[in-house]
Amino acid sequence: MRRQRLFFLYTGFCGLLLAVLILLPMFALLLSSSPALLLRLLGTPEVLQALWITFLSSLSALPFIFLFGLPAAYGLARCNGRLRRALEILLELPMVMPPVVAGLALLLAFGRRGLLGDLLAGIGVRIPFTLTAVILGILFVVTPFFVRRCSELFAGVDQGLEEASLLLGASPLQTFWHVVLPVIRRGLFAEAIMALAQGVGLFGVIILFAGNLPGRTQTLSLAIYSAFETDPQQAFALGSLLLLISLLLLALVHVLSPREERG
To answer: pTM of the full predicted structure?
Structure first.
């Protein structure tokens, strides 16, 4: 009993230290700026433009994340053996890749002198340092996380439901659309918010692939970076704003997540 108590005290102490490590910087950031400063910044054109580009790019990427990610997640959940391990490794590559390296890789793939540079130039398409580059960077980074999380949702669906649907004459597409997706629809809403939250906070891949162009590609994260060089107090206020947005999106994720998943 004494050893059990010591172990529980140790785990509780470690949990407390972790909570302090996470919460202390957040409180420090939130206390560094006043609500009046936040409201004043929200009235400036530069901040409004950065907010608009942040949410526009993340929301624009979301349909493509679902379009490519949902079938991939379903296939990952239904395959086994070496194929599944190979697919998981492929998905994990962008997840472990440093954001700066991801930006360089995208630039070398879609840039003017990249692998597809001549092909894109031939059809009059320019991707780097445009809003399209911001959206593509979000797709590259966020989609693998989305696929891994959604594959767990699909894995939790009773395959007996799918088999019954197929036996009753439904096609695989009808089964996927009318049987599988309704079962996990609440989880999918939560994953959509999570993908949106991840896209809102991206920095490294965007600054290298899309640049930091105010009014064109400057997201809120990049605006914080620019402000920190000239006006740290403004950077702190913008950081508090982005933190509040992230906390709100995270709260929505937990509200929408199924109770059994949260348990």
So the answer is: 0.89
Angle between helix 2-31 and helix 232-256 axes, rounded to 10 deg = 130
- Cβ 32 vs Cβ 235: under 8 Å: no
Domains of the chain are: 41-257 (1.10.3720.10)
Summarize the confidence of residues 8-35 as an average pLDDT: 91
pLDDT, one tens digit per residue, over 178-216 is 999 999 998 999 999 999 999 998 998 999 999 999 999
> What does the H/E/C string look like for the chain?
CHHHHHHHHHHHHHHHHHHHHHHHHHHHHHHCCCHHHHHHHHCCHHHHHHHHHHHHHHHHHHHHHHHHHHHHHHHHHHCCHHHHHHHHHHHHHHHHCCHHHHHHHHHHHHCCCCCCHHHHHHCCCCCCCCHHHHHHHHHHHHHHHHHHHHHHHHHCCCHHHHHHHHHCCCCHHHHHHHHHHHHCHHHHHHHHHHHHHHHHCCCHHHHHHCCCCCCCCCCHHHHHHHHHHHCHHHHHHHHHHHHHHHHHHHHHHHHHCCHHHHC
Residue pair 99/108 in contact (Cβ under 8 Å)? The answer is no
Task: Centre a 10 Å sphere on the Cβ of residue 26 and count the other Cβ atoms it contains.
Answer: 13
Q: Rounded distance, CA 29 to CA 50, Å?
A: 20
Burial of 16 from C-beta contacts in 10 A (0-12 / 13-18 / 19+):
exposed
Residues 41/234, Cβ–Cβ less than 8 Å: yes
CB neighbours (10 Å) of residue 48?
12
